Amino acid sequence: MIDAMTGEPSGLIPMIAGESAASTIASNIFNTLLKYDKNLELEGELAKSWKISSDQKTITFTLKPGMKWADGAPLTSADVLFTWKLVTDDNTRTPYGADYKLVVKAEAPDPGTFRVTYGQPYAPAMDSWAGLQVLPEHILKGQDINTTSFARKPIGSHYYQLGEWKNGERISLVRNPNATQGQARIDRLVSRFIPDPASQFLELMADNIDTMGLSPIQYARIFPAREELNRKIALYKELGNAYTYLGFNLKHKPFDDKRVRQAINYAIDKQELIDGVLLGLGEPVASPYKPGTRWTNPNLRPYAYDTEKAKALLREAGFEDHDGDGILDRDGKPLAFEILTNQNKQREMSAVLIQRRLKEVGISVNIRVLEWASFIGRFIKTGEFDAVVLGWSLSLDPDQYGIWHSSQQAPGQFNFIGYNNPKVDRLLEQGRLELNPDKRMKIYHEFAATLLEDSPVVYLFAGYGLPAIHKRVKGIDNPAPPAGIGHNAYEWYIPAPLRRTEISAQ
Amino acid sequence: MIRYLLKRLFWMVPLLVGISLISFLIMHLAPGDITTTEAGFNPKASEESRQKLREIYHLDEPLIVQYGLWLKRMGTLDFGTSFASHQRPVFWEKKDDQGNVTPGMIQEALPITLLINVLSLVLIVVIALPLGVISAIHQNRPPDRAITVFVFVGFAVPGFWLALMLMYWLGVVNPWLPISGLHSLGHENMGMLGRLWDLGRHLAIPVFISALSGLAGISLFVRNGMLDVLHQDYITTARAKGLPENTVIYRHALRNALLPLITLLGLSIPGLIGGSVIAESLFAIPGMGKLFYDAVLMRDFPVIMGILTIGAVLTLLGNLLADLAYAWADPRVRRGVMQ
After folding, report:
1. What strands, in cross-sheet order, belong to the sheet with A113-118?
2. Along the 339 residues of chain B, how does pLDDT read in single tens digits?
């Protein structure tokens, strides 16, 4: 099976490489202790089970017995411990160490047990153990993880192992006979690096690749118009991992006024954005979590599109059109601001639609589009912006302390909008200390409700991922579960007569 | 002659230092560094760990110190390793203690870009020369007009559009040529000839596209050169002697008309290592253009500096080479150099 990616990974040790291309490929090679199932609930991967102590500070993982690395060496808790040491080592060039450094004691009392103890209960820990890909100690011991050639010829334990890496062209993975999670049904996975989406699409049409992620235009306009494509290619729809929002700089006037924020929220037609920007291929969200998972509060609804309410709220906040120029003003100052965004077509188009809707209620908006590094360096870090259109991920773990807690406002931290709400702070702190999923759920439902009411950002939409896969690939769940269609990729198969000859010949 | 050469080479050193200093400063004027681009917006990446990375790469030092460090490394011809790309060597391969060889980034990208550019330059010269000569002979008559229109259409047509159209017609509708990439799957199992054939098929559209836009320049250059020469007295003399028209044109006129072309080709040497970002992205070719563009977006300073330095060296060498070739071809210039 051949897929296409836009970027090439720099290496296949994800904690070092960092980019999404690396984690996509590495997730077929390395195992994690835990993983998310199709409904995005945690289950064991290398771990058979895990136990949380009564003070919620210690987690004991019991590993599945008899696991092996692809080269035949046994995979034990010593490897997990080794990986933990690596990611927390100060010499390791990784930006992802913070979660793991909270572990005050990690130990491997016997080959089948791995135990970590935290200074105080830390609920996102579970998620972090689903993110740390375990590396083999017997190969990496004594090597410099930053420069080791292991990154270009990794030995893992998951379904696949590296077959061939042709720089700039493709990576081929072949089935790992010693895989810890059973055998995948597809023999070979090839990822070709094709930076241009139009070229990818041509390759898909010409049958040279089997799958790619489509854009809304390709999905909603090109496919319906082309009978012959639909005959050989199946389209899928899965909820994406991110949402787009309009965020305010809460330290600037007039965004310190909740009524202004709510008014803007009412004045923006989210359905129009979804129809216009995503051609209908998205969903409105009312909390920063994936709809359909347990962390999403089912009682919350996005702000309806209601210009009357918006105007009333603005009037209440003291804004009126005194000089008759169509723009509201207060104390002689017009209600005008600038929306910044980076070079991303969907965000640019959203900003334009927002600009028009806000004009209707008497708010004047300018739009400025910037290159990513200057955007972050010059405006986000310094806090010199009015409003931004950006995206956050719909995180699988509900902890969003870094984004919303009032202590996270220093330059380079992620609460750059300057949100400060004591109630939200308290809930975020509680949520981190509670490892019981049901109790935790209640905390985050309340958190999401407060956030929605306070409206520090306007949730615009969450777009769908739109994979297209050749119909010869069978065994794909449709419609997609919350985790997306890829959750059972190892069960996909291609019936023998439909396989590519150039691959099966090898 | 040797003295002239040595003098020219010696003067290249201060020029190179100047070029590298300016490119270094301009590059660092752009906001952000590798720590903003790599994991800059991931809430799991803390500011402390990013600060740590900055220290490791010396990005927290004053600019002039960073330049000094870079210059010191360059003194030993060490281009360093990439920030972004898992510490791969920027220029040439490195061997570690266990004998694992990590290929250099420029080392891999350069031959691909060179191959495409040389092929297209050859194609341009091979096509543009006769076109230019024909235009000059038939000045202002239909063949001349037709050729001029053709080369200008080729020059003006947006390359990416034509590329997509060709990919669609020759790859999807009539699957004769591969659409993107450099090698087919299963390339390893082909014989030597099979591999060459495979590579040629992959390169056909990219080379054609990049040659098409270059036709106009060279063919008009040849045409004008020819016209100048054809009006010279010695051509009239040759004709008056009763020489056949072909001898007049190809022996007497063309040779002299080609002189300025030498300069033009010499100056295009540095261009040979620069790839087009758009074409390389479209055709999924891992060449220099893509390498440089990605490095700039990632603020991968060692890679940017490596490419700029090599580009500067080649530009200066190309100029020198053009001068020397000119001296070799034209006795008048040769005397000037000797003195």
Report:
1. A47-52, A58-63, A113-118, A103-110
2. 677 788 888 888 888 888 888 888 888 777 767 766 655 556 566 666 677 777 777 777 777 888 887 777 777 777 777 776 556 777 777 666 666 677 778 888 888 888 888 898 899 888 988 888 888 888 888 988 998 898 889 888 888 889 888 888 888 888 788 888 888 777 777 777 888 888 888 888 888 988 888 888 888 888 888 888 888 888 888 888 888 888 888 877 888 787 778 777 777 777 777 777 788 888 888 888 888 888 887 777 888 888 888 888 888 887 888 777 777 777 777 766 655
Residues on chain A touching B179 (C-beta within 8 angstroms): 199, 202-203, 206, 208
Residue in the block written with tokens 């810890």: A180
SS3 of A36-90: the string is ECCCCCEEECCEEEEEECCCCCEEEEEECCCCECCCCCECCHHHHHHHHHHHHCC
Q: Hey, what are A123's tokens?
A: 């609920």
Q: Nearest residue of A to residue B282 by CA position? A: A196
Shortest Cα–Cα distance, A494 to chain B (Å): 18
Instruction: Assess: ipTM above 0.90.
Output: no
Name chain A contacts of B103, Cβ cutoff 8 Å: 167
- For residue A118, the distance in angstroms to the closest alpha carbon of chain B comes to 18
Question: Taking CB atoms and an 8 Å cutoff, what residues of chain A touch B35?
Answer: 95
Give the SS3 label for residue A154.
Answer: coil
The HSE-up count of residue A373 (CA atoms within 13 Å, CB side) is 19
Mutate which: B85, B105, B179, vs A, most A CBs within 10 A: B179
In chain A, which residue's Cα lies nearest the Cα of B56? A93
